[in-house]
Design a protein that fits this description.
This protein is an alpha/beta fold and 394 residues long. The protein folds into two domains: 167 residues, 2-Layer Sandwich (VC0802-like); 215 residues, 3-Layer(aba) Sandwich (Rossmann fold), CATH 3.40.50. The protein contains 15 helices and 16 strands. Helix 9 crosses helix 10. The longest helix has 19 residues. It is elongated, with a radius of gyration of 26 Å. The two termini are 40 Å apart. The structure holds adenosine-5'-triphosphate and magnesium ion. The site of adenosine-5'-triphosphate has 20 residues, from helix 6, strand 11 and helix 13.
């Protein structure tokens, strides 16, 4: 029996004139994401995408699992393919849905006829299929409201028969909102921020600041592991690793200790914006949340943003740590984030950071540094790798 996956667009349906470009983006993303699982043909019409395995080697289980994490999808289901002939439909439905119907107590049948040339009306198809299923599964009863299983028969280019739909990942197709520069640390918050923005259709480019030998290679690998988990939702991510040691040492030697963190964060912003210019990104993304640490008071965030030439998105800004952790568990980044490796932020943490920094004081404190030269050297030392859900790509 031939089986396919039927996908229903999500929020896309609302986007009016842009719809066809959103749909094209979603198709492209699905195609990329299921490529490792064999040859498939994708077709799209009337807010539905059909994913057709082209040979017996195509792995439909893995493709369906992957599709459950592709943004822009409201729901999906596997479906049996029948000829556009009511007898074929009546033969296939009970066989294909056997396991599901054996488990269920109540059901209903809904027919959708997009091919109006089909000789039976939708209510006629529903009635005939319902009757056949009752014959084959006498323990079932029909229930119109909230049945255990809704059997759907769709008459399109072929006839498709399916049971309950699975919920999709929601959101918008990655790329449909453009690109954003993700400041990724090894902590809990930034991978969650990444996931939330990818869900809004933002394609992610990663930037990580490393301060060897104060930070170890293992802490960089931790960032790779985190991004591999995020890539299960966002698709592949290019990661840029910035050598940050010289800047941190210069801050430590030349600036008042209470401003260390805020000045360091302003350097991160400047270099991220330089990279954003070069990689077609239109916003920065961080994992900050108000009042979580000294550098995340409103005044401190204001001093950080003063050097940014792009909007800074902080999707975790109003969330409690508990709420952030819940998402990080769902996306499987939590256990990686809590591994104890040092981050460049923790290396030179001041004992008494300023929680109410004034911009003019921060600017004054920075005057001891050759900001442009430091940024330029760090920028020139950037190393770039590509990360997919499989890990670092060689
Ligand atoms: P996280 O859990 O994401 O590490 P945090 O609560 O530990 O966040 P900070 O360490 O102050 O907070 O960092 C705030 C944000 O700054 C992070 O969410 C991240 O976006 C960015 N950031 C911090 N350190 C780095 C780094 N080494 N490289 C890139 N971005 C960083
Ligand atoms: Mg951190």
């Amino acid at each position: 029996m031939k089986e396919i996956i039927l996908i229903k667009d999500g929020e896309l349906a609302l986007k009016g004139l842009n719809r066809s470009s959103f749909e094209a983006m979603l198709m492209k993303n699905i195609r990329w994401r299921i490529k490792p699982f064999g040859s498939f043909e994708l077709k799209q019409s009337q807010s539905t995408i059909t994913v057709n395995p082209l040979d017996d080697n195509a792995d439909l289980d893995s493709a369906a699992d992957e599709i459950s994490r592709v943004f822009g999808i409201a729901g999906f289901s596997r479906a049996a393919v029948a000829e556009k002939d009511i007898n074929d439909i009546l033969d296939i439905a009970p066989v294909y849905l056997k396991d599901q119907l054996n488990e269920a107590k109540t059901f209903k049948v809904e027919a959708k006829r997009s091919d109006k040339k089909f000789p039976l009306t939708s209510p006629e198809i529903s009635a005939m299929v319902g009757e056949r299923l009752l014959e084959c599964f006498p323990h079932l009863s029909v229930q119109v409201k909230d049945p255990d299983i809704k059997v759907v028969v769709e008459i399109r280019d072929r006839a498709y028969i399916r049971g309950n739909q699975q919920k999709g990942a929601g959101g918008m197709p990655v790329g449909s909102s453009g690109r954003g520069m993700l400041l990724i640390s090894g902590g809990i918050d930034s991978p969650v921020a990444a996931y939330m923005m990818a869900k809004r259709g933002v394609e992610l480019v990663g930037i990580h600041f490393a301060s060897p030998p104060y930070t170890s290679l293992r802490s960089e690998e931790k960032v790779h592991d985190l991004l591999a988990k995020v890539a299960r939702y966002s698709g592949r991510i290019w990661l840029n690793t910035v050598p940050f040691t010289e800047i941190q040492e210069a801050i430590r030697e030349n600036c008042p200790e209470e401003y260390f963190t805020i000045i360091m964060r302003r350097f991160m912003m400047r270099i991220s914006c330089m990279l954003a210019d070069n990689s077609d990104c239109h916003a920065l993304i961080t994992g900050e949340s108000v009042a979580q640490v000294a550098s995340q008071t409103m005044l401190a965030l204001g001093c950080t943003d003063a050097v940014a030439t792009y909007p800074v998105f902080r999707p975790c800004i109003g969330m409690d740590k508990e709420e952030i952790i819940k998402i990080s568990r769902n996306i499987e980044t939590f256990d990686i984030s809590i591994q104890p490796f040092e981050d460049c932020c923790t290396v030179f943490t001041p004992k008494h950071p300023k929680t109410r920094p004034q911009l003019k004081d921060v600017e004054e404190a920075e005057k001891a540094l050759d900001i442009d030269a430091l940024c330029q050297r760090a920028f020139e030392g950037i190393q770039r790798i590509c990360i997919t859900s499989e890990g670092v790509q060689e």
